[in-house]
Design a protein that fits this description.
Helix 5 links the parallel strand 3 and strand 4. The chain has two domains: 40 residues; 331 residues, Alpha-Beta Barrel (TIM Barrel). Strands 6-5-4-3-2-1-7-8-9 form a nine-stranded mixed sheet. By secondary structure, it is of the alpha/beta class. It is built from 16 helices and nine strands.
Length: 381
């Protein structure tokens, strides 16, 4: 049998290429129909009862040591964050008993002196918790490393996977400009390299997140080269209007969507990244920029909730209005009484949002497959 396979592969290369192409196509369509079946079953379950959220966005403070070009959170820096005991009270509500994943961020979460205590509360009050995603600007290197050792140990005890992401928006001065503070890049780079080289000590997964604006798109290849050179996973997102960040008044200054030149550069960048990696995330962002319409699935549409640093609740952090304060009213009632608003939010706002761009939505997945196969077929030739 091996003899015949070798004969086909070397003496009939066209047949070999065709077999590889068909195999790839079958694999992609099997994946597609599995995903479609899962989506269908989820849709039925949502019609039968109101789903409790499974994903929690949890910015624990408005305070930050940076003033980023795409963020207006400094307006809220003087606001008092709710006490950790109030957080424990909020999370005791039955609305949160199905939460599996928590995004822990800020502001800058490592400004909070007792950050590890917040993690312990999450573990204590969320019985289904499996994943914690911690996002930091990476500047407070010593404190970050010290706290991460404690947090990683606590997560390991309870079989919770800890992912750490550092915001890295450029190399050298480009990063400083993006983050609104001078001479910060070396600290951030040191944090990244130390965590990467000692990852088992600090987290289960590590990567950097790069937010694209007019200020860094021209030099974006420098960040990509840095990530490749240091073997660090990198993800990108497009800076846009974000309710939690209070950045609407800065939009014209930072957004690549407000200038055709910067928008074209960004389209080219994500198309290049898609062709290089076949990643659904890059395909989503490329198509969003090209068509001005979202094709990515978002966990927050049906399964998400956000607790803001003052106890306010919203469905998502980017587009949702505040639906109430969980210290004043039970969280489950606020959630249930605003289900109609969530439906309106999904119908009117989700299509224009670029955030949380992961997998391709099921109704666009066949287009993604066709793009992949076209590129794959070209490479085989």
């Amino acid at each position: 049998m091996k003899k015949y396979i070798k004969y086909i592969m070397f003496d009939y290369p066209y047949v070999s290429l065709k077999i590889r192409y068909i195999t790839k196509k079958i694999f992609l369509y099997i994946k597609y129909y599995k995903r479609r079946t899962r989506e269908f079953l989820l849709k039925i379950s949502r019609k039968l009862y109101i789903n409790k959220p499974k994903v929690l966005q949890f910015p624990i403070t408005y305070k930050c040591n940076f003033d980023c070009v795409m963020c207006g959170m400094q307006k809220m820096a003087k606001e008092k964050d709710i006490d950790i005991h109030d957080i424990e009270e909020i999370l005791s509500n039955k609305l949160f008993n199905q939460i599996r994943s928590v995004g822990l961020n800020g502001g800058e979460p490592f400004i909070v002196q007792n950050l590890e205590d917040y993690v312990k509360i999450l573990i204590k009050k969320l019985p289904k918790l499996k994943y914690i995603y911690l996002i930091t600007n990476g500047y407070l290197t010593d404190r970050i490393l010290t706290k991460l050792r404690i947090i990683k140990s606590e997560c390991k005890k309870h079989n919770i996977r800890l992912t750490v992401s550092v915001s890295l928006d450029g190399i050298g001065k480009t990063h400083d400009i993006m983050r609104g503070r001078s001479n910060i890049f070396n600290n951030v780079e040191n944090t990244c390299i130390t965590i990467k080289n000692n990852q088992k000590e600090f987290c289960d997964d590590f990567g950097v997140i790069c937010t694209i604006t007019k200020h860094n798109i021209i030099n974006i290849n420098e960040v990509d080269y840095w990530a490749t050179k240091n073997n660090v996973n990198i993800a990108y997102n497009i800076a846009t209007i974000h309710k939690r960040l209070f950045n609407e008044d800065r939009y014209e200054d930072f957004s690549v969507l407000t200038d055709d030149y910067y928008k074209l550069l960004t389209i080219e960048w994500f198309y290049y990244k898609f062709k290089q990696t076949n990643s659904e995330q890059y395909y989503n962002l490329y198509r969003y920029l090209l068509d001005n319409k979202r094709i990515a699935k978002c966990d927050y549409q049906n399964d998400g909730i956000t607790i803001l640093p003052n106890g306010d609740l919203s469905f998502c952090a980017t587009q949702s209005k505040i639906i109430g304060n969980a210290l004043s009213e039970p969280a489950n009632l606020l959630f249930k009484n605003n289900i109609l608003y969530r439906k309106q939010l999904m119908e009117n706002k989700c299509a224009e949002c670029s955030h949380y761009s992961g997998t391709v939505s099921i109704n666009k997945y066949e287009e993604y497959i066709r793009e992949l196969l076209q590129a794959y077929n070209y490479r085989l030739r």
